[in-house]
């Protein structure tokens, strides 16, 4: 057996025979042992303490009796106290910031500020079920947390005691564990010993060997193990490898062989299998020599190892050592997952699909179809593509498989929604569809029914209706436009009035689908085909705007009345001298204003003449008496909606 001697700084190997080492151990059973870690093969841990893991910073106190230090949930415990935490980052600048040694997420470690007493112990555990005459390794990982001054570095003692702790069977001291200057460094310390004959129960203890004192003797412990140590056990496949990856269809057989050096005096062997990554192992029935032939069945990763012990101890997991496992991974045949969007219809795109992640794909099918694509497509399909398509895939590991998918293309119906049609606003029309066994019209707006071939449409606005027909397998669509012709509407505008000679602006409006329009009568108008022409009537005139639908949806009219007032012309002189010329004051057009009033005043403001209507012209008299020649003044109120008034002077000549 090869042993490894540990100083506080390094490890070196020493070769001795197992027999010599056993004699030395028996001679020094109660003496302190030199630091030695197993250089042969180790067995499954009898004790494995990694303090667990969690999301909280602190894990809580250890079980009673595990340590005689006092628990405190803080990152920097005082002398004689400990904590279990997943980081020392909260301790400030005195300690190195470190996480646990195990490396699992949120993993905890035991952090100790050692006391001044060298009789205190960090960790203690009873171990039972050991085998006499069997070698075990007792080890732990330790880190000196101090990053600056270190008056008294940690010094840890590993001890094996009798169950009543009255006798130290064997112990080992790490010596001073020096401070590091570049960061925290986890180091493994420990030793191995051989249980005397008949000893099956012991107590393992990790103790303080250095009195405390600030700043000093601050450390963290993790991954405490106690496990069998024995000869080197090496196994390999016949070709010398220890790892294989094969395809399920390979049907391979493997020959495993093992070597044990140096063997136990009375060795026994057992091959084991793990299918859960090495978490648990089961004995392989009948596989009890150093060689083994295996033909893995089924897919998965299979770990094989050889365990050995003295023949009397081979059945105890606490007493045997194991080889590093051989790994055989059997890869299942890749699932082709061959599929399609079948059943498909004529004119659609056929989508062939297969599993992702393969290294290569090979599709074959009817009419010489081939493709190296994972998911090929065939567009505008017909019944000519009917048949079986085969996919062959190969994974990056070289595992292959084939799959098939059968395609049946269905005939597609031909939908007909009929010809486009126009209707007058408020009318309806019959839509007649054909081509399928079931029908669906959309949108439903204005329809009497949506799931029949024939339906009545009465939309308020022009609408495109889509008819979807089905033959039970495939569908088709067709559109029909129902144009709604808006009925004509007209407004000739408001009536207008003004004096003769005025040019009026008409303001007509017309609406409806594609309507035409014109004004009547056609005289004294700028453009009869314009909605807003100008007109200049000389007499009262009614203009009519005619609006007509070209689709037979009717003609409508509206009229606008133009009132034309005559302009009154007032002469500025007359001579009532009975010569037959200008004997009266003849005011042109005043007689057409029957409600008009006329008042005449002399220069003194006295009214000398007045009348309503001008059916009798003024003759220059007042109350039958001739007025003297001179200038007179008049006021005329025409009494119209325009509110027109005239005023001025007139010369009476004698």
From TrEMBL:
Highest taxon above the source species: Bacteria
Q: Is Signal among this UniProt entry's keywords?
A: yes
Keyword entries, A-Z: Signal
Source species of the chain: Filimonas effusa
The stretch of residues making up the signal peptide is 1-35
One of this protein's Pfam families, by short name?
Answer: CHU_C
Instruction: Extract the InterPro entries matched here.
Output: Ig-like_fold (IPR013783), T9SS_type_B (IPR026341)
Q: What is this protein called?
A: Gliding motility-associated C-terminal domain-containing protein
């Amino acid at each position: 057996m090869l042993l490894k001697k540990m100083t506080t700084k390094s490890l070196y190997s020493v070769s001795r025979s197992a027999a010599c080492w056993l004699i030395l151990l028996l001679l020094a059973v109660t003496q302190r042992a030199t630091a030695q870690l197993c250089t042969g093969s180790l067995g499954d841990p009898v004790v494995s303490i990694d303090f667990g893991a969690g999301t909280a910073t602190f894990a809580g106190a250890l079980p009673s009796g595990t340590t005689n230090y006092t628990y405190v949930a803080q990152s920097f415990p005082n002398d004689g106290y400990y904590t279990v935490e997943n980081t020392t980052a909260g301790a400030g600048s005195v300690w190195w910031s470190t996480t646990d040694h195990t490396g699992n997420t949120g993993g905890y470690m035991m952090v100790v500020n050692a006391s001044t007493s060298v009789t205190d112990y960090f960790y203690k555990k009873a171990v039972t079920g050991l085998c006499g005459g069997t070698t075990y390794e007792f080890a732990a990982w330790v880190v000196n947390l101090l990053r600056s001054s270190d008056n008294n570095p940690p010094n840890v003692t590993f001890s094996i005691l009798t169950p009543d702790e009255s006798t130290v069977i064997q112990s080992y001291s790490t010596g001073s564990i020096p401070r590091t200057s570049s960061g925290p460094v986890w180091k493994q310390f420990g030793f191995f010993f051989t249980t005397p004959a008949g000893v099956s129960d012991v107590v393992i203890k990790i103790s303080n060997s250095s009195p405390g004192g600030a700043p000093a003797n601050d450390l963290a412990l993790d991954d405490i193990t106690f496990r069998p140590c024995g000869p080197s056990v090496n196994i390999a496949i016949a070709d010398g490898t220890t790892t294989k990856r094969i395809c399920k269809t390979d049907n391979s057989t493997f020959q495993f062989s093992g070597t044990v050096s140096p063997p136990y005096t009375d060795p026994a062997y057992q091959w084991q299998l793990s299918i859960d990554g090495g978490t648990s192992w089961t004995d392989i029935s009948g596989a009890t020599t150093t060689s083994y032939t295996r033909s893995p069945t089924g897919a998965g990763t299979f770990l094989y190892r050889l365990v050995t012990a003295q023949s009397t101890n081979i059945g105890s997991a606490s007493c045997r050592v194991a080889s590093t496992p051989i790994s055989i991974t059997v890869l299942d045949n890749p699932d082709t997952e061959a599929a399609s969007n079948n059943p498909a219809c004529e004119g659609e795109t056929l989508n062939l699909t297969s599993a992702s992640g393969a290294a290569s794909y090979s599709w074959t099918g009817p009419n010489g179809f081939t493709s190296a694509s994972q998911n090929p497509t065939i567009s505008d399909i017909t019944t000519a593509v009917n048949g079986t398509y085969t996919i062959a895939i190969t994974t990056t590991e070289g595992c292959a498989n084939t799959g098939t998918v059968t395609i049946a293309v269905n005939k597609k119906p031909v939908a007909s929604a009929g010809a486009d049609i126009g209707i007058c606003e408020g009318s309806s029309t019959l839509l007649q569809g054909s081509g399928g066994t079931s029908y669906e019209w959309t949108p439903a707006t204005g329809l009497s029914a949506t799931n029949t071939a024939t339906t009545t449409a009465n939309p308020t606005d022009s609408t495109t209706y889509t008819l979807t027909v089905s033959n039970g397998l495939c569908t088709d669509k067709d559109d029909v436009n129902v144009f709604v012709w808006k009925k004509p509407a007209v407004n000739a505008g408001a009536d207008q009035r003004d004096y003769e000679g005025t040019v009026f602006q008409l303001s007509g409006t017309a609406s409806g689908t594609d309507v035409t329009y014109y004004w009547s009568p056609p005289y004294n108008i700028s453009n009869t085909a314009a909605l807003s022409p100008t007109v200049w009537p000389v007499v009262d005139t009614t203009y009519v705007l005619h609006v007509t639908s070209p689709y037979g949806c009717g003609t409508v009219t509206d009229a606008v009345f133009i009132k034309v007032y005559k302009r009154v012309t007032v002469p500025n002189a007359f001579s009532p001298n009975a010569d037959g010329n200008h004997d009266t004051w003849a005011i042109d057009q005043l007689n057409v204003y029957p409600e008009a009033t006329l008042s005449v005043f002399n220069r003194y403001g006295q009214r000398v003449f007045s009348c309503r209507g001008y059916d009798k012209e003024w003759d220059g008299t007042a109350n039958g008496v001739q007025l003297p020649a001179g200038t007179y003044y008049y006021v005329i109120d025409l009494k119209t909606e325009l509110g027109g008034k005239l005023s001025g002077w007139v010369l009476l000549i004698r």
